[in-house]
Write a structure and sequence with these properties.
- The complex is a heterodimer of chains A (361) and B (405).
- Chain A is built from ten helices and twelve strands.
- By secondary structure, chain A is α+β, with helices and mostly antiparallel strands.
- In chain A, helix 4 runs parallel beside helix 8.
- In chain A, 54% of the residues are buried.
- Chain B has a five-stranded mixed sheet with strand order 8-9-10-15-16.
- Classes of the chains: A alpha+beta (361), B alpha+beta (405).
- At the A-B interface, strand 1, strand 3, strand 4, helix 2 and strand 5 of A face helix 2, helix 3, strand 1, strand 5 and helix 4 of B.
- Strand 5 of chain A pairs antiparallel with strand 5 of chain B.
Chain lengths: 361, 405
């Protein structure tokens, strides 16, 4: 299948230059933008000091894209905006227009493709997510299927700016968390709940025992010998199912169809606006893995969105709303049970204990 | 599109995917439709569909632990992936991912996208992620023999692989000066310049673990640098917020409750609206962006612009998640490139020397202590580095050196 190598062989060329694909209006007004306005959900207008206007139309994409769909996006960019487009940090696609008359025809073409327009300001934007069963070996759950199911339920909030503040959801299919899942308004996190199953015959051939032992943050992995060969044993009550051992040693698989599942976390943010960036906190320790639609997960996320949008003040992110009303109220309003799992017992656990007599009744 | 007699194959050659088919319904665009679209012309996309359906039945991943595959002279950029049901789905038995370093802030022309699509149509599954979590273009799935030719075609088209393993990972930046009035430094250019400067460290893993750079040009932090990057560079300004009084009045006239919607949310409590005039005590402003986010036409960052440099964010593995914390409270925009290069070389020297296997820089600082780390990189402590001074008296007093108090 291989063909003759291209000559000369090039390496270390790096990415295309940062300005290579910028539209002319951006080149002209680079660093000279004055302000922006929202024309409609998913449609922004940036105005430059020169008076030039740049219109952005933002559409939601599933992140996993076929080349057929990417070519359709390229055709739309040629048709409406000189071939210039970009993607966002949340896997949305943005068309960069100078001609406002093209906005509505582009929106119609996107609608015909099944691409919703929105995701700006106080909407629920696209869900940042990971590979899941599509392409990852350590996944405790799928990613794309849950994202699709949750966004089907929340699509109206993508196309309308109807939240008190912006609401950002992220999903990671295991604790490795490819992406900023741990600082999201709502985070969906795949979890294992059983210790690794040591593959004793395989282990001596594929793993370095000292590396494996030092990979465990709780010291649950101890040296042992098996049939005269160096191996390990797991102190199971010390295991908190992080799967770091599996990352360094393929003979320590964690995957368990019956016990793997999802946890839900709330109230994180990365923006510095108003309050400081912060981690998301545990709302639901475990929900089962029920493909293809994960109804328990969808119901939980929709519940949080509904309760938040009903009770939060304007501009309050989920975490800022909970700051004001308190965690007891959050659990009361959502109906989620508060359990022993909600109280931290890892390092620095005391920092999240209530260390005052401030109690709401 | 009726099922074939054996119930396994459909008339058009796609596998029977009863569970996944449900995910083609509903208003949100479907990844299953995307895989089926690629499967029309790609046997590996077809087998991916079949294997994924099996995962949906079994509720577990059918990918094995990665293997070492790559292109000549690089130690990263390719993620080896093998199926554990390769006999059933031979076209994804080997299904490796290539990470391709994206253009800054993910700007493309239609021709650039078509170029990538054409390469990937010839060389791989025809499936992508636009984009991966770190920012790369993800080319999803090909065989070992296609890696080198794909790489060569990409480099001749002006693209290169991204990072993986214990290396500099593909840096990413927000849209910055290309389309944002809040950009306090040129995040796209800085991202590009440093990516080029660190090509060797990006392609040839030589660190204890990964090192991520992310560049956000204002404190809204659109690339989540503070949560994800070992080094987070977040734009800010030093002088006074620029106020356009006429636009402030226009917002008020249009019905914005400035006292409630703007001033009452100010974390520095530095803004006052008397019904006619907005006044700001800039010394008390923490540069949070809320007022500008609400009134973009009336308020803008000051003119003395630059960035805060923060260090140490990471996800939970291994010793718990960390957010980046302040290392240098302000570096002027035109000094960022040189300052970061110098700072990074000192940080990497220390990390190379003392970091253990798979220890991120944030965890190393936790282990040795921030004061010892500051000593090692030759940076003086400043109060901006902490939310408060320590509240415990367990202090490692040092023996006074001659001439010191």
């Amino acid at each position: 299948m291989t063909t003759t190598a291209l000559q000369p062989r090039l390496t270390d060329v790096g990415p295309p230059s940062y300005d290579k694909y910028l539209p002319p209006v951006v080149r002209k007004n680079y660093g000279q933008w004055k302000y922006h306005e929202t024309i409609a959900p998913g449609v922004l207008c940036h105005v430059a000091e020169s008076g030039d206007r740049l219109y952005t139309v933002r559409g939601g994409a599933p992140r996993l894209l076929s080349i057929e769909t990417i070519r359709k996006f390229a055709d739309l960019a040629d048709k409406y905006c000189g071939g210039y487009l970009r993607f966002t940090s949340r896997n949305n696609i943005e068309f960069l227009l100078t001609e406002p008359a093209n906005i509505e025809p582009l929106k119609r073409d996107l609608a015909a493709m099944g691409i919703p327009v929105g995701g700006t300001n106080n909407s629920i934007s696209n869900i940042v997510h990971t590979q899941g069963w599509v392409h990852c070996h350590s996944a405790a759950t799928d990613a794309s299927g849950i994202v699709k199911s949750v966004m089907d339920a929340l699509c109206e909030h993508f196309t309308h700016e109807d939240m008190p503040a912006k609401l950002r959801i992220a999903l990671a299919c295991c604790l490795n968390m490819c992406g900023a899942v741990h600082c999201s308004d709502i985070a969906i996190l795949g979890v294992h709940r059983r210790p690794p199953k040591i593959q004793k015959e395989l282990l001596p051939n594929v793993c370095e025992v000292p590396t494996l032992i030092s990979s465990c943050p709780t010291g649950a992995i101890r040296p042992a010998t098996w049939e005269g060969k160096p191996s390990v044993e797991v102190i199971e009550e010390q295991c908190m199912y992080c799967a770091n051992c599996y990352t360094v040693c393929p003979a320590m698989p964690m995957s368990d169809a019956e016990n793997d599942g999802l946890s839900i976390w709330v109230g994180g943010k990365v923006s510095n606006a108003r309050s400081e960036p912060r981690f998301s906190k545990l709302a639901i320790p475990y929900l089962p893995n029920h493909p293809p639609r994960w109804p328990e997960v969808v119901e939980a996320v929709v519940k949080i969105v509904d309760v938040y949008s009903k009770h939060a003040h304007k501009y309050e992110r989920v975490g800022e709303w909970i700051d004001r009303v308190g965690w007891p109220r959050f659990f009361e309003l959502t109906g989620f049970p508060f359990t022993r799992y909600h109280i931290d017992d890892f390092k620095h656990a005391g920092l999240t204990f209530a260390r005052s007599a401030h109690v709401r009744y | 599109m009726a099922d074939a007699p054996d119930g396994k194959k459909r008339a058009n050659g796609l596998p029977d995917t009863k569970l996944l088919d449900d995910l083609e319904k509903g208003p949100w665009p479907s990844f299953v439709t995307e895989i089926k679209s690629a499967a029309k012309n790609s046997e590996s996309a077809r087998d991916l569909l079949g294997q994924l359906e099996l995962s949906y039945e079994d509720r577990k991943s059918h990918w094995k632990h990665g293997g070492l595959v790559g292109v000549l002279g690089y130690g990263g950029g390719v993620i080896g992936r093998y199926s554990d049901v390769g006999e059933q789905f031979p076209n994804v038995a080997h299904f490796h991912t290539m990470r391709v370093n994206h253009p800054a802030a993910w700007f493309y022309t239609s021709d650039a996208l078509r170029t990538i699509c054409d390469v990937w149509e010839r060389r791989g599954s025809g499936l992508t992620n636009m984009h991966g979590s770190t920012g790369d273009i993800i080319l999803l799935g090909t065989t070992t023999d296609q890696l080198e030719p794909t790489f060569q075609e990409l480099t001749h088209e002006g693209f290169d692989l991204g990072g993986s393993g214990s290396a500099v990972r593909t840096p990413s930046s927000c849209v910055g000066m290309a389309r944002c009035e809040w950009a306090c430094y040129d995040s796209m250019k800085l991202c590009y310049d440093l990516t080029m400067h660190y090509q060797d460290e990006l392609h040839r893993p030589s660190f204890p673990y990964k090192f991520k750079f992310k560049f956000s040009a204002c404190p809204n932090d659109c690339v989540a640098s503070i949560a994800r990057a070992d080094m987070s560079v977040i734009g800010t300004w030093k002088d006074e917020i620029q106020i356009d009084e006429r636009e402030v009045a226009n917002y008020a006239a249009a019905g914005l409750d400035i006292a409630k919607d703007v001033c009452s949310h100010c974390p520095g409590k530095c803004m006052d609206w008397d019904g006619k005039k907005l006044s700001i005590e800039n010394h008390d402003c923490v540069r949070c962006m809320h007022c500008m986010n609400v009134m973009p036409k009336a308020l803008r960052p000051g003119k003395e612009r630059g960035a805060v440099i923060l260090l140490g964010a990471k996800a939970p593995i291994l010793q718990g998640a960390l957010l980046s914390s302040v290392l240098i409270p302000f570096v002027a925009a035109d000094e960022l490139f040189e300052t970061i290069k110098e700072l990074v070389s000192r940080i990497w020297d220390f990390w190379d020397e003392y970091g253990t296997n798979r220890e991120r820089i944030g965890e190393l600082i936790q282990r040795v202590g921030m004061p010892a780390f500051l000593d090692a990189i030759g940076l003086d402590p400043v109060p901006e580095m902490v939310s408060a001074p320590r509240d415990n008296p367990y202090i490692y007093y040092q023996t006074e050196k001659e001439g010191e108090q």
